[in-house]
Specification:
Layout lengths: L4 H5 L3 H12 L9 E2 L17 E3 L8 H10 L12 E3 L12 H13 L15 H7 L2 H7 L8 E5 L8 E7 L5 E7 L5 E6 H4 L6 E5 L4 E6 L2 E6 L3 E9 L1
Parallel strand pairs: 1-2, 2-3
Antiparallel strand pairs: 4-5, 5-6, 6-11, 7-10, 8-9, 8-11
Helix pairs in contact: 3-4, 4-5, 4-6
Length: about 240
């Protein structure tokens, strides 16, 4: 954690974090090196090769508006993430604050779409069943940890400001699949759809798996759709049929 080291100690980010990398490299054990300077100096542009992951945002808060704002800030960062170097939009706030079950599922699901580290800071013994189900959904975790390591891109934006609109995000998966997130930030349920072309899938027939609800949907050769609750998310996994 940078902890205002430029102000408090006169340090410079790149040289200080590089020095820490080199000292960690002297240890005879595998290490994951995570740095946090709150995204102030765009670490995604200089931290690859220095650290394994870097915070891209100011501190997250345990509320829906903070989560939505952070998701929006990640939309242009997909090109900087991949195996060995990850964007870190801060820890999951599930179990904290007063987010609804749908907001919790959106939080976890979008972090998975962003190929983000899934770190939790809460009292695990006190997690209610709906939160525990969201953070232990193996199908969502598998998308987060997909070996290809591609972060999702936002491919469709609905009308309205980013606090209250629909969005479609897509990320390619290993072995030719795609994960598609239908994200509803409005205050009412919405039936959302997208096309294979829009999400980057090739022409042909694709199986569709609703990873959020662990159910199979009809296969498609054109569009995919789902009814998404207010502040909700449907994460669909597409595989070549």
């Amino acid at each position: 954690d940078w902890c205002e080291a430029d102000i408090n100690d006169g340090l410079e980010r790149v040289s200080a974090f590089t020095h820490m990398r080199d000292e960690l490299g002297r240890l005879d054990r595998p290490m994951l090196y995570s740095i946090s300077e709150y995204g102030r100096e765009q670490p995604w542009t200089w931290a690859p090769g220095i650290a394994n992951m870097w915070r891209t945002t100011a501190d997250i808060a345990p509320n829906w508006l903070s989560v939505v704002g952070i998701i929006d800030s990640q939309a242009e960062l997909a090109q900087y993430a991949g195996p060995g170097g990850w964007n870190d939009p801060d820890m999951l706030q599930v179990g904290n604050g007063a987010m609804t079950p749908d907001e919790v599922r959106s939080h976890v699901g979008m972090w998975a779409m962003l190929a983000a580290p899934l770190m939790i800071g809460t009292d695990l013994d006190a997690l209610p069943p709906d939160v525990l189900a969201a953070v232990s959904n193996k199908e969502i975790i598998a998308i987060d940890q997909d070996p290809l390591g591609k972060q999702a891109r936002r491919v469709q934006v609905g009308a309205g400001n980013f606090w209250a609109r629909t969005e479609v995000w897509s990320r390619p998966l290993d072995h030719g699949g795609h994960a598609v997130a239908l994200f509803n930030k409005t205050d009412a349920p919405v039936t959302m759809s997208t096309t294979l072309e829009e999400v980057g899938a090739t022409a042909g027939r694709w199986t569709v798996r609703d990873a959020s609800n662990k159910t199979d949907l009809p296969s498609t050769s054109s569009t995919v759709s789902a009814t998404v609750p207010a502040h909700g998310l449907a994460v669909l996994r597409l595989e070549p049929a």
